[in-house]
Specification:
Layout (H helix, E strand, L loop, with lengths): L5 H26 L14 H6 L7 E5 L3 E6 L9 E7 L10 H9 L3 E5 L8 H15 L9 E11 L1 H9 L7 E5 L14 E6 L7 H10 L6 E6 L15 H13 L2 H4 L8 H4 L3 E6 L9
Parallel strand pairs: 3-4, 3-5, 5-6, 6-7, 7-8
Antiparallel strand pairs: 1-2, 2-4, 8-9
């Protein structure tokens, strides 16, 4: 049983609808007239400053009726297969509200399938994006043919989409999950891969202590982190991921790409996240050395 009241669920949904939709609309308009360059993370944050910078890949964006796809312009160079990230939007939002963040991950070599749904809680539309790419991987003539790494898929989403990321993470095709300021309607007990639960210290919509931390605690059966970004509110991730961009990129580079430098941000005595002053609360359930598949 979920440890919250129905009243709280309604309050969260109502506040998201009132606040996220206008923000998404404004950001979509702003994207038409501003460049997509990323600002560097805070100078005192090793994770933010290093992994928040753009990757080496040129990015292109494609659309289907159900998904918006972000990917490296050149796929499969040297026989490389690209790991997949599936994305879920906050309530009432579309991928355009997070466009710079999704482009950022593609610049680091990932194929990103962002569900076009404005209600991502079930995680099913997100999983459909992964299945679409797996089908394209097997289809001769597709630009994705034999270029998708079917064994490395991560789910991530914001707010309602964060709950969707958890619910998608119950599917065996998902290897790792990042619930970003996730809503409460999720079952973390069903996760079967490592998870990074992210909260905003000043989030007045998805309260860190009442919602995000309990979700993390319910995922005790898998390697998991809980990290709370100092000073961040609920809309910190909108557009380019804000202060969350670097740590999410490092996590996916660690879990989906086997990047040893990224792994050092989460494991061993030099764990970068554990001592980074940009984060007001960092916890691990003691099994964080699960590594990559």
């Amino acid at each position: 049983m979920l440890p919250i009241s129905l009243t709280l669920v309604r309050e969260v949904a109502s506040m998201l609808l009132r606040r996220l939709v206008p923000a998404a609309a404004l950001l979509a308009c702003a994207a038409l007239v501003t460049p997509t360059a990323h600002a560097a993370g805070p100078a005192h944050s090793s994770i933010g400053s290093q992994w928040a910078d753009p990757g080496p890949f040129e990015v292109i964006k494609e659309s289907t009726s159900a998904h918006t796809l972000y990917r490296p312009a050149v796929l499969g160079d040297g026989g490389h297969r690209h790991a997949v990230i599936i994305w879920g939007n906050g309530t009432g939002a579309t991928p355009e509200a997070y466009d710079d963040l999704l482009r950022h991950w593609a610049s680091h070599g990932f194929i990103v399938a962002a569900a076009n749904t404005k209600n991502a809680n079930s995680g099913q539309e997100m999983l459909d994006g992964a299945r679409f790419l797996l089908q394209e991987n097997d289809r001769p003539g597709s630009p994705y043919h034999q270029k998708v790494d079917a064994d490395r898929i991560g789910s991530v989403g914001h707010s309602q989409g964060g709950a969707g990321a958890i619910n998608a993470g119950a599917d065996p095709i998902v290897d790792t999950t990042i619930p970003l300021e996730p809503g409460p309607l999720a079952e973390p007990e069903q996760l079967h891969g490592p998870a990074l639960f992210l909260a905003g210290q000043n989030d007045g919509i998805v309260d860190p202590q009442r919602i995000v931390l309990p979700l993390y605690e319910r995922a005790a059966h898998v390697p998991a982190f809980y990290a709370e970004l100092a000073g961040a509110d609920h809309f910190e991730p909108v557009a380019d991921g804000g202060g969350f961009r670097g740590v999410m990129t490092a996590w996916f580079r660690y879990q989906l790409a086997g990047d040893e430098q990224a792994a050092a941000e989460f494991t061993g005595p030099s764990c970068g996240l554990c001592t980074d002053p940009a984060w007001s609360d960092v916890r691990s359930n003691g099994t964080n050395d699960g590594g990559t598949r």
